[in-house]
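ok trying again, last paste got cut off:
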Amino acid sequence: MYARTLLTASLAALLAAGSPGLLSAQEIADTIYSGGIILTINDLAPRAEAVAVAGGRILAVGTLAELEALRGEATESFDLAGRTMLPGFVDSHGHVVLGGIQALSANMLAPPDGDVSDIASLQQGLRDWMEDNREAVERINLIVGFGYDNAQLAELRHPTRDDLDAVSSEIPIVIVHQSGHLGVANSAALAAAGITAESENPPGGVIRRGEDGAPNGVLEEYAFFYALAPLMGNLGPDGFTLFAKAGAEMWARFGYTTGQEGRSSPGNVEALKAVDAAGELPIDVVAYPDIIEARDFIGETTSMDYDGHVRVGGAKLTIDGSPQGFTALRDRPYYDPVGEYEPGYKGYPAVEMEQVLEAVDWAYANDIQILTHANGEGASDMLLAAIREATETHQPEDARPVLIHGQFLRLDQVDALKELEVFPSLFPMHTFYWGDWHRDHTVGPVNGDNISPTGWVTDRGMMFGTHHDAPVALPDSMRILDATVTRRTRSGDILGPDQRVDVMTALKAMTIWPAWQHFEEADKGSIEVGKLADFVVLSDDPTAVDPDTLSDLRVMTTIKEDVVIYAADESGPGFGGSFPAEADLAPGYDLLHGLEEAVE
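nice, full thing came through this time. structure:
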């Protein structure tokens, strides 16, 4: 902070002197950005006319006339061409490596992000993808589809092993639910994973069965995670390196200059580092490995400093599952769940209370930041009790624990979050993708209005983050912005008008507040002197357009430390000289062809 203050004072003195001849080589700008709207996300100076950058950091912010004093013979001009520049988006929660799988697998998403609307179109999507990748499928012996949602299928049910066997009963097929907490395997994949009629449910997971007691292919939570591991293991470390690269590139496409690798693993961290070492990681990525499975690794590697573009920021704990999949732990029965559930069904925890208490205590005792997935009210009760106990025991100065999702929070729980200084990373995109489903089936019309309660936290003066949780959804920054401001569902309903926030608040939840969440507010999240030159250029000013058109805004350019890493029109320089075209980063982009060399 002292260095930033000194730099600001020094620069102000030089500008006041008004003499370019007084500037040293370090005070000549590499680039001056101007020619459009600049939203700084700095309340003291919310708009600017120009930004000067040197050495990848912001040298000055002000009028173009003032910043001309910083121009030298080699200074480049970046013309915004009437568009709007903001600080680069900071990912409040996502899964960069798993997002790479989404980017490179068969697209099972429903409209508007895909074409799957029923079981038949899902099957056809798999057949088409298999045909397009036939040679690679035969080599790797695996078909992966990503993003199906039973709530959006005409049949309102999960596909089964029989549905996938109709595509192929010989090649293992795994399709991943859009929540990432469920999946379906065909007979060949179940056999490869060793799941039979005699298999018992693992702790924190469910193997769904048919009337004959045999697995029907649908696997929940840890049953799915354990089955997926051996199938994906054939891809090897090079395969996960490909996923990491593809995920980071997709994040950049949507304006993110900092991504998150939530619920990570040592292998995923190493994959990210390998991509970075090859000069192919365009963004910063903060990883949070699973605290149950990788505690020693977390303790050894957590750091506030980046190793290139990668750092381990702390630990991730997962308490429950998916609200739309009815696996989140509520404090009351689900409203009208679709499927075969016992009366009074409330979901279930992925871990026991003893594990939650022990994990949170370990994190606090070792000064490790902990991010916790808790969707249902019951899961949030478990988290808040553990944080309260750990806070009383260890009295941390600045722990910054993070609640991930908090879909079904009660008002008293929001008050407890504020009291315990827990940062809520909320998921308002659910109001678009699953708002109608929550209103009609998970929590009902009354409580449905209060999912992802951004209005409640804003009223209490709290900072919060908003996220996409990709690959649950695409890391679509403009969809996040739109959902946070409008809360409009797929059907056009406004889910919880009192929970809506203004555009500037929503932008802070994508920039400066998640930068604070990651302990990086001194370097990121706003356009201020001394911070990194991480920018995103949008097609229009989000504070000036009709809020109902926010999702139509486009990310035109993403800039990381004064280097263009994505250009939507493909005319600007790309990362590494040849950034992939926008169409090549859509889901369904040829996973197995990209993995051929990785498994040879």
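cool. The domain at 321-367+375-397+407-501 is CATH 3.20.20.140 (TIM Barrel). The two ends are 50 Å apart (CA to CA).
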